[in-house]
Amino acid sequence: MTPEELQRYSRQIILPGFGAEGQERLRAARVLIIGAGGLGSPAAIYLAAAGVGRLGMVEFDTVERHNLHRQILHSDAAVGRPKLESAEARLREVNPHVHFAGHAVRLTAENARDIFEEYDIVLDGSDNFATRYLVNDAAVLCRKPLVYGAIFQFEGQIALFAPHLGGPCYRCLFPEPPPPGAVPSCAEAGVFGALAGAVGSLQALLAVRQLAGIAEPPLGHLTRFDAVRWRTTRFTVPKDRNCALCGDTPSIKDLHPARYAPVVCAAPVPEQTDGMSSADEEEPPVEITAEAARSRLAAKEPPVLLDVREHFEVDIGAINGHRHIPLRQLPAKYGTLPRNRPLIVYCHHGMRSLRAAEFLRSKGYTRAQSLAGGIDRWSLEIDPSVPRY
Ligand SMILES: [Zn+2]
């Protein structure tokens, strides 16, 4: 290292367990970031500043004004320009020693493995399920550690996936993408800018920690951060021996384009938590009053409203914004309900919905609540335009 480099990195070199050796490892390292977006932006800046030798980025999009509140690599002046150009210019300012490698392509089943082979570790900054599954599958097939990060509205998730080191992969948690339309996209649901900064920075931290050899990799966990409830939950994620990708007898042995049909951007939540953190997840009462439900439903992030009555009852009148699954169909269809949002269930008088809420709780929807008194009470107390019957 030159005196200039020693000076630049001195404050991390003096860290216990890091040293000049860790710095040399970083300089020899090749890191690939998928996307120069909300997660890729802070991750790239910290990785460049830390002195990663080669920093690759896959990105084909251009900078748009509505990106700027979270994609901090890009400036207002860059609107309309390719994100890769903007990223390279900014990263060169941060650290001219880093070799930047732009891949101006859409990541596909055809090109993913060739690109991944050039790197030591991959950071996923993608914002849709199709790419997320493609990135996971390519990383597992190429035996590259994957630093997973995802954000949705006020919630962030982070994990290190590396089946070749003994940990799980993303498919061990979520074997298949959710059905199209089951979860809204970021464009519809919104995303909190500083949360992208926090999760992207943690991804950079995980990568540096791994590359510099500071500590054992935190395999087998997924950490979720809820920026509204101000709570971190750590889920235990064991490797699934039946995983179609990294299990004992995998059925996914190559990347087939048909497997990565575009879906959406939200982050599903696993059901199982550590013993430590499950006690931390409080459950709301199983019933909710009409007045409390009204204010919850008027909030910026309303719960899912589920009507479990029969079709003929819904035809008489319903509460605006409801989803309809008759109670008897719930055991077959509950999987289409989003797991990462609270649920308010209602029926005519609150009996069927109470059963539905208890059933949903037994399936891991721990925040499901039943509207006490049903739509009848709603009509009496909240909205007289809903017909009583
Ligand atoms: Zn797996």
Summarize the structure.
By secondary structure, the protein is α/β, with parallel strands linked by helices. The chain contains 15 helices and 13 strands. The protein has helices at residues 3-13, 19-28, 40-50, 83-94, 112-116, 129-141, 170-173, 186-189, 193-211, 275-278, 290-298, 311-316, 330-333, 351-362, 374-381; strands at 30-34, 54-58, 99-103, 121-124, 146-152, 155-161, 221-226, 231-236, 287-288, 304-307, 323-324, 343-346, 368-371.
What does it look like?
About 2% of the residues have low confidence. Helix 3 runs parallel beside helix 9. Helices cover 34% and strands 16% of the residues. It has an 8-stranded mixed β-sheet, with helices on both faces. A 5-stranded parallel β-sheet has the order 9-13-12-10-11. The protein is α/β, with parallel strands linked by helices and 389 residues long. The radius of gyration is 23 Å and the shape is elongated. The chain has 2 domains: 273 residues, NAD(P)-binding Rossmann-like Domain (Rossmann fold, 3-Layer(aba) Sandwich); 95 residues, Rhodanese-like domain (Oxidized Rhodanese, domain 1, 3-Layer(aba) Sandwich). Bound molecules: zinc ion. The site of zinc ion has 9 residues, from helix 7.
